Amino acid sequence: MSLFRQAGRVAWKDLRIELRSREIVYTMAFFAALIVVVFSFAFPRDIRIVRGAAPGMLWVAIAFAGTIGLGRAFDRERENDTMRALLLAPIPRLAVFLGKAIAIAVLVLVVAAVGTPLLALFLGAPLFENPLPLVISLVLGAIGFASVGSVFAATLLKVRSRDVLLPVVLYPLLIPLFVAGTSATEALIAERVNLDAAWYWISFLGIYDAAFLVVSIWTFESLVIE
Q1: Burial of 160 per CB tally in 10 Å (0-12, 13-18, 19+)
Q2: Given CB 3.0 to 4.6 Å as the disulfide criterion, which of 143, 147, 181, 184 pairs with 201?
C-alpha cells in the first residue's frame, strides 16, 4: 500500500469522525464568525481602513480558530488513547503525520471559507476581486499551519498544560506564515492591486511550507515517541 494511500486513510478516519460529530468544525466556524462580527463592529466602514485591516482580520481568525481545532483534534486521540494505536499500526509513522496534517488543513480551509465571505459581507472588503491568488495563499497557509501544528500538538499530547503551551510554542514559528499571508492578501485588495507583490508573498508561503514540511517529517517520529 502506498504511503499516500495510508495517509489518506488516516485523514479520512479523522474527517469521517468529524462528519459524524461536527464538533470541531462547528466550534472553529463559530469562533471565526464571532471574531469577524466583533471586528465588524470595532472598525469603521471606511473602505480605506477596511482595505488595510481586512487581511489581518482574516488571518487572525484563521490562526485562533485553527488553534482551537488543532488542540481538540489531538484531544480525541488522547481521550480514546488512539494515538498509541496509530503509532503501533503497521504503517509508516510518516503516514500518520501526513494524515493528521491533511485533516487539520481541511478544517482550516473550512474556517477560511467561512471567514472570507463574512468579512466581505460585513465590512465590504473586496476579497473576491482576485480570487485565484487568494485561494492559493489560503491553501498554502492551511498546509503550513497544519504541518507545523500537527507536530507540536502531537508532541504536547500528554502534557497537562498543553492548551496553554500549544499557542506559546506554535505562534513564534508561524509568524512568517501569517506575515506572508497577510501581506499577500493586502496586496490583492489594495486600492491599486499589486499582483507582483502578492505572488512574491505566495511564493514565500510555498517555500515556507516546503521547508517546514521537511522539518516536520524529519522530527515527528522522534518528538512523538519521546
Answers
A1: exposed
A2: 184
Q: What domain range is 105 assigned to?
A: 3-225
The C-alpha atoms of residue 63 and residue 142 are separated, in whole angstroms, by 10
**Domain total for the chain?**
1
Task: Determine contact, residues 124/35, Cβ cutoff 8 Å.
Answer: no
Q: What cell numbers appear for 8 in the block?
A: 489518506
Local confidence pLDDT in tens for the 226 residues of the chain: 587 788 888 788 878 888 888 878 888 888 888 888 888 887 777 777 778 888 988 999 899 888 888 877 777 666 666 666 666 666 777 777 888 889 889 989 998 998 899 888 888 888 888 889 999 999 999 999 998 988 888 777 777 777 778 888 889 999 999 999 999 999 999 888 889 999 999 999 999 999 998 888 887 766 665 5
The contacts of residue 19 (CB under 8 Å, 6+ apart) are none
Cβ pair 73, 24 in contact under 8 A? yes
